[in-house]
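Sorry to interrupt, but I need a hand with the structure work. Can you supply me with one protein entry, sequence and fold together? No commentary is needed, just the two lines. Leave the record below and I will have a look.
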Amino acid sequence: MSSLPVAGSGGRGVIVSLGSSVAFGLVYFLTPYLAPMSGEEVWAIRTVVTLPFIALVLVSMRSGRQISEIGRRIRLRPVLALGVVACGALLGAQLWLFAWAPLNGRAMQAALGYFLLPLVLVVLGRLLYRDRMRWWQWLAAGIAAVGVVYEIVRVGGVSWETLLVTLGYPAYFVLRRMLRTNHLGGMFWEMAAAAPWRRCWWCSRSSTGRRSLSTRRSGGRRPRSRSSPPSRCCSTCSPRACSR
C-alpha cells in the first residue's frame, strides 16, 4: 500500500491547508444554524473559547515560551503593545465578520472576499517580499482570477464585507510579520488584547437585557412605585372614573 508523500514539509503543508480550508467552510456553513444568536454573541463566545485553546496547543507542543518571549519584548519595548492591540483589532474584526455575515444574509459578499484574498496575497508577496512563483503557480493564480472576476460581475460589484476581508487580512498578516509575532504565541496575545472589547460588549449587552426584561414585566410602562397609591383627580371619584 503506497503512502502519501508527506515526508517533506511541503506535503504536510498542503494537507494542513486543505484540512483547514474544509474546516473553515464547514464552520461557515453551520453558523446560520446558531440563530437566534447574534453575530456579536457568536464572536464573543468564539474569542472566549479560542484563548485557552491556543494556550493548550502551545503547552502540548512545548512552545509556551512564545508567549513569554513576547511578554518580555513588551516589557523591554512597551510600544510593541500598541502593535499587538492593532493586530488584535484587525483579527477581531475578521472573526466578527465571519460570524455576523452568515447570520445576516451577507455570506456571499464575505465569501467573495475569501475568494479574492489569495490573489491579493500573491500580489503582496511579489511586491513586498519578492516571492518568486513557478509557471504553474502563475497559471493557477490566473485561473482563480478569472473565476473571481466572473463572480464579481455576477454579484454586481464589491461590497464592504468583501473589502474588509480582502484588505483587512493582508494588513493583519503584514503587521504581525513586521512585529515578529507571526506565530501562535502572537495570536494568544492578540486574542488577549481583544478581551477588554469583549468584556465591554458583554456588559452593555447585559445592561440592555436587564432594561428590556424590566420593560416587558411592566407591560411597556415604567413600573409604578408600590409606596405611592394611584393618583386621583379628587378625593371622591373612583380609580375607574379617573382613568377616563
